[in-house]
Amino acid sequence: MQVLLVNDDGGPNDLASPYVKYLVEAIEKHTNWDLKIVVPISQKSWIGKAHFAGRDVTVKYIYSSIEHPEDNSYHGPFGLPQEKLRANKALKEWCLVDDGTPATCADIGINHIMGRDNVDLVLSGPNVGRNSTSLYALSSGTIGGAMEGCSHGKKAIALSFAYEKRFDTDPEILKQAALISVKTVEQLYSSWADGVDLYTINIPLISDLKFGKTRIFRTPMLRNRWKKSLFSESSRKLEDSDSRHLDIVDESVSAGQLYKWSPDFELVHRDVAASTEFTDGKAISQGYVSVTALKTAFAQVDKENTGEIHLDPSLSSLSLDDKHGPFVVITYPEDSYLNGPLRNAVDKYLPGATILSSLKDAPKDEKVFQYGEYEDLDHERLFSDKLYLANSYTYRKGLIRKQYFANAIAYYVAKHPKSILKTAYPETFQLECAYADFLDDSLDEAFELRCTLEQNTSDTFILKPSMGDRGDGIRLFKNIEQLQAIFDSFEEEEEETEEDGDYNAESSKHGIILSQMRNFIVQKYMSNPLLLKEYGNRKFHIRTYVLCVGNLTVYVYQRMLMLFSETSYEKPSNDTGKPIDIAGHLTNTCLQDDTDKTVVVEFGKSSLSESSKKKILNQINSITAEVFKSALEADRINFQPLGNAFETYGLDFLVDSDLNVQILEVNAYPDFKQTGSQLKSLIYELFECTFAKAVLPFYSGSSKEAENLKSVLSIKDGFC
After folding, report:
1. Distance in angstroms (rounded) separating the CA atoms of residues 316 and 326
2. pLDDT at position 508
3. What residues does the Survival protein SurE-like phosphatase/nucleotidase domain cover (predicted)?
4. Distant-in-sequence, close-in-space partners of 5: CB < 8 Å, separation ≥ 6
5. Peptide bond into 77 cis (omega under 30)
6. What residue spans of 191-279 are helical by DSSP H?
7. Which of 85, 170, 622, 666 could make an S-S bridge to 399, C-beta 3.0–4.6 Å?
8. What's the pLDDT at 544?
9. Burial class (CB in 10 A: 0-12, 13-18, 19+), 495
């Protein structure tokens, strides 16, 4: 095989091009390729497939040792090839193109150094650094050199070494990278896929890189975009003294604004971390070799995108009539956490969509999808207009109000005693009490609760406001005396709040305004939760995102979260005279803003054994299906799934020390931000899954596959 090697970093150099000689050594040692090397005489990175129009180039020759790639000494440069040095099998000839780009090197190498009929493959690289994701690829001189080879009808491969720190020059790692490169190139060339113009290979320079051990994946390229300029404005101006070095015709122009080259290279790493698809960038970040097949053309998007264009003379002021669907209304502020995952999903599944910030601006006679807060949705339109899709059902308090939820499960279990909910939902009592002085009367009304509290001296109970959230008003107690003390404290807190002025939820941690809250539930408290030593034996609950589509398909997102309490768990004391400290019992992340401990862990990546994870996951899937069955069967008034709506709920589960799972509650509009920055890719993927199953069918009539969504319930027209 006759191979032309080009690059954008130049000849062997410890700083600019420290990798290329290791590749040359591997080619000479492990192949029988006829190799010719034509590279720029100096660094030409970030130049893409450019030629310097109007400039002539010259070629010089140097000769270096093959067996010692760490030795950067060489013979030359010479103006012409040196036949005696060429004949020395221990040396390799390098053609250095002065003032030439990588594309220029490919052209000169194909047409003048080797001859058009004598080139089987143009190999460009290895680049010093990765050429993954579209941002790097579109600027890459390495890929540009390969593209020039394709322009001359040759097969081409671009090769890049993705270093972890600048620069990795460990000889053993580089030898392994070079060996993997050679073997990968040989296999790609021998089984070249139809329709492929060039391949781009990225090899991570990691400490355990090894041929035969490091995995290699064919991957798509991550499509990303710059979020800001590659240049920053400098406070320094171009002064008179600087202008003397420029060809300035007008001598009056003697000053200018300086812009400094300062691209945000970390953007690529952030884009890769936020992405959910297994792309080139994701493969490299996980220590794998990526191979991406490319076409070297500005390809037409589709056959329909042809024909004459008639310009509209009124284009100076575009109206809604000039905009095209699909129409998406996002009524969240631009700085909202949800804007990122929302717009990412729109870009992926509804490219070219018109995004509006108000439903009033959307057309009435076309399909419109709105994602916003419950109060911002047009619920009247939901019931009458099938061209309108929204991200929430109108009636669903049968799920999200704790008292309604408890009633639905009690009714359902009475009819279905073999349901998993019989053991997967704690024994629950309802309590109505608006004032502490009336607690005794309220317990008379809740007679079963009174009897349970009077007869049971060992169990702990948990009190929850029916409409509370963020841990507000949750308390633990063991007997009626402690319960009375809790209600007394509620009134004391309320009186203090009234004296201080307006109620501030942020400043009232775990607080409650009793006069505005009268419905509570009381449950037996799980006193033996599953604890993990590596997380400080802190209690946790599992947050599970559940997508309900239409009326009704229920999907469980299999990537779940473990949310930990603030302090280590201690079983509630039997000393009934002391109030129970709830710090080690509440697992709401909103209460732990200042902690430096791990608050959120992805369930699938926890230290639990695979068998334990599977057992827990299977229970969660089964419980979730039964929960939505119970809401449909027991409380059709308060849970009405609509065909042109969907909703994502946050279901919270507890696991005991025997790996038995119990559901705690269902939350509408869960706080996705609690996932944290380290796991935000989980939320990005969830929104992509949501669009694939709930939004795309609204526009196209069919859904897409969503790998981590599991369908657990599918019924017709909201009837089990």
Report:
1. 23
2. 44
3. 3-227
4. 20, 23, 24, 27, 35, 36, 37, 38, 39, 123, 124
5. yes
6. 240-243, 266-274
7. 666
8. 97
9. exposed
Q: Which amino acid is at 553?
A: T
Per run of 10 residues, the mean pLDDT along the chain (length 720 residues) is 95 88 94 96 92 93 86 87 93 93 97 95 95 92 96 96 76 94 94 92 93 92 89 66 44 66 85 88 93 81 52 46 77 88 92 90 92 96 95 95 93 96 94 88 89 85 80 83 87 64 45 62 90 90 97 96 88 68 65 66 92 97 97 92 97 96 95 82 94 94 92 82
Residue in the structure block whose two tokens are 């935000």: 680
Q: What pLDDT does 274 receive?
A: 87
For residues 122-152, b (16+ Cβ closer than 10 Å) or e, as one string? bbbbbbbbbbbbbbbbebbbbbbbbbbbbbe
Backbone angles phi, psi at 75, to 5 degrees: -95, 130
- Which residues are paired to 564 by β-bridges? 540
Strand-pair partners of 388? 368
pLDDT score of 240:
47
What per-residue confidence (pLDDT) applies to 318? 42
Neighbour-count burial of 10, counting CB atoms closer than 10 A to its CB (0-12 exposed, 13-18 middle, 19+ buried): buried
Contact 515, 497 (CB under 8 A): no
Residue 645 CA to residue 694 CA, distance in Å, equals 8
Give the C-alpha separation, 199 to 155, whole Å.
9
Question: Token pair 């005279």 is at which residue?
Answer: 577
Cα separation, 102 vs 280, in Å, equals 23
Name the amino acid, one letter, at 591. L
CA count, 13 A, side-chain hemisphere, 698: 31
Q: Which of 651, 478, 486, 460 is nearest to 554 (CA)?
A: 651
The whole-angstrom separation of Cα 403 and Cα 317 is 54
CA 142 to chain centre: 28
Distance CA 4, CA 121 (A): 6
Pick from 61, 72, 59: which is nearest to 24 by CA?
A: 72
Cβ atoms of residues 163 and 30 within 8 Å: no
Using DSSP's 3-state secondary structure scheme, residue 320 falls into: helix
Closest CA to 517 of 538, 540, 501, 493: 493
Nearest partner of 135 among 300, 272, 297, 289, judged by Cα:
272
Joined together, the tokens standing for residue 228 give 């800001």
Q: Which of 129, 130, 138, 125 is nearest to 223 (CA)?
A: 138
Residue from 511, 536, 510, 522 nearest 483 by CA: 522
Q: Is 345 strand, coil or helix?
A: helix
- Which has the closest alpha carbon to 709: 503, 581, 525, 546? 546
Report which residue type is found at 1: M
Nearest to 219 by CA among 231, 236, 239, 203: 203
CB 74 within 8 A of CB 94: yes
Single-letter amino acid, residue 564? F
Round to whole Å and give the CA distance between 487 and 435. Answer: 8
Choose among 519, 554, 526, 553: nearest CA to 542.
526
Which of 367, 287, 273 is closest to 329 using CA atoms? 367
Task: Taking the CA atoms of 364, 369, 375 and 376 in sequence, report the sign of the dihedral they define.
Answer: negative
Structure token digits, residue 325: 């669907």
Helix (H, G, I), strand (E, B) or coil at 72: coil
Distance, CA of 49 to CA of 298 (rounded, Å): 13
Q: Residues with Cβ < 8 Å from 579, sequence gap 6 or more? A: 482, 485, 486
First to last CA, the chain: 66
